[in-house]
Specification:
The structure holds 2 protein chains of 2 kinds. Chain A is α/β, with parallel strands linked by helices. Chain A is built from 4 helices and 5 strands; from the N terminus they run ββαβαβαβα. A 5-stranded mixed sheet of chain A has the order 1-2-3-4-5. Chain B has one domain: Histidine kinase-like ATPase, C-terminal domain (Heat Shock Protein 90, 2-Layer Sandwich). The chains are: A alpha/beta, B alpha+beta. Chains A and B meet through helix 2 and helix 3 of A and helix 1, helix 2 and helix 3 of B.
């Protein structure tokens, strides 16, 4: 799994590439936490290149969205692939996380 | 945890070989990951890492994945049931893996045997291509 961070007007985009599992999830939590700690709690998780997540990835998202909201921000997801969306739906995460079709829409939602 | 990825790939490939569609391959990969990760994170926690065995078979339109281990017995019926109808602030991280396994498979059996260890059997129906 690889992570790239991009500052955009109104939000910080964290793009994830690869599989999120028990091995890689801690790295994801750390990347999100670094942004929140650095004063960027408005986060977009770009999942366009995520082909797999287990519940370890869900726990990373849950921890991050709680942390972000406590700091006045949010975590919103963009470009989620169908198989990963199925995992989010199975676990009831689509009711706690906003999902947008693409990164631009997710970023724009923070300034709307 | 590295081995969990190997089990995952093994089951995904085996599902493809028997002609299951990609969504079934993905789901079976996920359930194997969840069951094996639980063994690594909880079953063998605080003790010498023990063996985990994963086997795959197909009979007709059913895929069976069997996972064996020698950790202290843990019946999936005892896993916490996550609340999925509450806001994020009230969500707890535990039990999500077992929840997804229950949602995905058509049948699940668990046996704990003092001599032979534990055996989790997960059965999923599929439409052969």
């Amino acid at each position: 799994m690889e992570i790239a961070v991009e500052k955009r007007e109104g939000a910080t985009v964290v793009s994830i590439d690869g599989s999120v599992d028990g091995m890689s999830a801690p790295q994801l939590v750390a990347a999100f936490r670094e942004q929140i700690g650095g004063g960027n709690p408005r986060l977009v998780g770009n999942l366009a290149s995520v082909d797999y997540t287990s519940s370890a990835g869900l726990r990373a998202l849950l921890e991050t969205v709680k942390d972000a909201r406590q700091h006045g921000g949010d975590l919103r997801l963009a470009a989620v692939r169908p198989e990963v969306l199925r995992v989010l739906e199975l676990s009831g995460f689509t009711s706690i996380l906003q999902v947008f079709p693409d990164v631009d829409a997710a970023v724009a939602s923070f300034t709307a | 945890m590295e081995n969990v990825a190997a089990f995952r790939n093994f089951v995904e490939e085996a599902c493809r070989r028997v002609g299951a569609d990609e969504s079934v391959c993905f789901e079976m990969k996920l359930v194997v990951d969840e069951a094996c990760s639980n063994l690594v994170m909880h079953g063998y926690k605080g003790r010498e890492p023990g063996p985990i065995g994963v086997s795959f078979s197909r009979q007709g339109n059913e895929i069976t994945v069997t996972i064996t281990d020698r950790a202290p017995p843990f019946d999936p019926k005892d896993a916490p049931i996550p609340r999925l109808d509450v806001p994020a602030s009230e969500r707890r991280p535990g039990g999500l893996g077992w929840h997804m396994i229950r949602e995905i498979v058509d049948r699940m059996e668990y046996e704990a045997d003092a001599r032979d260890g534990n055996r989790l059997t997960l059965v999923k129906r599929f439409k052969p291509a």
